[in-house]
Amino acid sequence: MTSGRLRWVLVAVIAVALVEWVAAARAYTNSVGADDWTAFGQRVDSLPPDEPVVFADDWLAPRARMASSPLARLEAAALPDLREPTRIHVLGWRGRAWSDALQADLEDRPAPHPESTLEFGDLTLTTYAWPDAAVPTASMVDDLMALSVESDGGRCRGKRTFKCAEGRVVPRVVEVDYRARRCLEIDVSDGATVRVLYRDMPLGTVLRGHVGWGDFNHRLRSDAPANIELSIDGHVHARWLASDTQGWRPLAVATTPGTANVEVAITPALQRTWSRDGYGARAPHPVCFELRALQDGARGEAQSP
Q1: What integer pLDDT is reported at residue 277 of this predicted model?
Q2: 3-state SS of 243-299?
Q3: Between 20 and 30 A from 292 (CA), which of 81, 82, 146, 154?
Q4: Which domain holds residue 99?
Q5: Residue ranges of the chain whose pLDDT lies below 50
Q6: Are 173 and 105 members of one domain?
Q7: 278 vs 235: CA distance, rounded Å
């Protein structure tokens, strides 16, 4: 190749590099100013507390929580699913208004109807609504003082953190499948059964819950199956076998409105993790679960003429 042709190749390479640099500079220009975040925060602060703000782009969440104190509450940052609200507000980047993660949180609930869109610079806040929703009547995660906990070794001590012979049960916020979730963490020995009892639990039409495992690195090294058994007034209504490959696994049992003694028995089969040295006695991999009693469609019925 002659020196002249080499010069033209070099010029072409530099030109392409300049074009890519300009395109990248435009793409990553911060087009959301302080005033935009302030306006967004004021809008969120004016929303009813039962209308959550969720994210089509999860990377916006930390900055959004700085703009609005209600978004920084644990209840807002770690929703169990999208069963309860009649309306949600989805924050996205440059018109993005939904995501696969939000679709998963719907589970088998019908898709909501879009109502409105607001823009704050390149931020887009899209409002969705359902004609009806579920009203919570009780929650094992929220109603800790109503719980009693037992294990194979007998009654577990404590009121909020329960200390058992084989370990402990404690409320936590954990990362499950890259999402924050509030749950009761069951951190006990392999094969030990923990029974969480809610006496006279106010029931609606369904008990809904989830089970999952935190910590990405531990999930890589563990099969972590667990047996879950749900009983109402001493009668077993459902059994599930869950593993850490299933993400935030949903659980559901239909119920009759009223009060009943609800017990969840959880038996982790492999609570520890695998390493190059084999199955280790350290580095526990506890299972987390949550369970709520819901009255499906109650809000919609209350609003009907």
Answers
A1: 74
A2: CHHHCCEEEEEECCCEEEEEEEEEEECCCCCEECCEECCCCCCCEEEEEEEEEECHH
A3: 154
A4: 34-131
A5: 9, 11, 22-28, 300-305
A6: no
A7: 39
